[in-house]
Design goal:
The complex is a heterodimer of chains A (186) and B (220). Chain A is of the alpha/beta class and 186 residues long. Helices cover 33% and strands 16% of the residues of chain A. Chain A has 5 helices and 6 strands, in the order αβββαβαβαβα. Chain B has 220 residues and is of the alpha/beta class. The longest helix of chain B has 18 residues, at 78-95. Chain B starts with 15 loop residues before the first helix and ends in a 6-residue tail after the last helix. Classes of the chains: A alpha/beta (186), B alpha/beta (220). Strand 1 (54-59) of chain A pairs antiparallel with strand 5 (192-199) of chain B, so a sheet runs across the interface.
Chain lengths: 186, 220
Amino acid sequence: MAEMDTSSGGGHKKGPGVKKGKKLSTRVDLTPMVDLGFLLITFFIFTTTMSQPTAMKLFLPKDADNPEDQNKAKESGALTVLLGKDNHVFYYEGILDNSNASTKFKSANFGNGEDGLRTEIIRKKASTPDKDFVVVIKPGAECTYKNVVDALDEMSISDVKRYALVDISEVETQLIKATEGATGAK
Amino acid sequence: MGRPKIPRKSTAIDMTAMCDVAFLLLSFFILTTKFKPAEAIAVSTPSSVASKVAPDKDVVLVTIDPTGKVFLSMGDDKRDLAKKEALADAIMKTKGITFDKQKFAKAHFWGCSFSQLPSYLSIPEENRKGNALAGIPADSTKGGNEFAEWMTFIKTVYMGDKMNLLLKGDNAAKYPAFKSVIDAFKKNDLMKFQMVTNPESIPTGTELWRKSIKGEKRDD
């Protein structure tokens, strides 16, 4: 098997004067076929296990009927992350009001570089006591689903225990617009 | 010198058996592979570091397409079919509309308002494409949040049974669409859901990375 019989009729008895034609073997070399088979197998093995989507859990907090009852985050430990248009990220610590908006309101990006969101979260996490640390994610109307998932993912990457998805306020929307306008973003 | 003659054996091996095994395995993998169902709604999901595989049993899947339209679908098991028929009954009874229950259960996904359901179901399945359909009205600012009502029906149908609520959103979908879906969940006290994402490796040097190196169990 597995190779062509090229010996010229080795096993045949040649009678005197009898000329026999070359008898070709019917056997085929199966090696390429086996190769192909295993190649396809590996292909199927890889494609089946790799394309399994994963799921990310999210628990929603119950809305309190009375806004006063809503859990209050400690101001010193709060980091608010705002998501804007075109993957822009902004953040501020504590509470934002008109007097400190210009200094507190900072912009970041989804990277992990110098002004990345991750760097900022790690910094804030290290400088605040664990039980006070809370990240508030406020997605703006212009940000995409991907941005929200990325931000939530950032929470699990940096192991933030407490985080919340909160609606953005009018003041913050205005600030984002102003900052985006200033940095030349469309 | 009279050396005993050892019959020379061929070094070629019989490949037939190996070939058989290879093709047996091949056919096994081909048959067990679940092919991606024809995607009527084109959605590319974002990636996350979550490692848990998305469940595929008792699934209620909410899809948000790139333009923010909302679609709803359920599994195709026998159990799911029963649930779908119960859902159809509930809708027909409450909404006072009639449509083909079988067709409703066979539809791969639903993406229209209640009033349009009968005409929606009359469209042949292969012609139901996400980009041509209206989607379930979910935005409470325009046209009311019908999606919340869908979720109410689904919740009653799944009463007492396990339900895996999945949310599959497109990268490009805007946040308001996502928010209206969340609001609909909240309205129905469905506080726990999972978002379908693509797996992504954990960035090195981060807290989570250190944890996973230590072999700690992750609670996502």
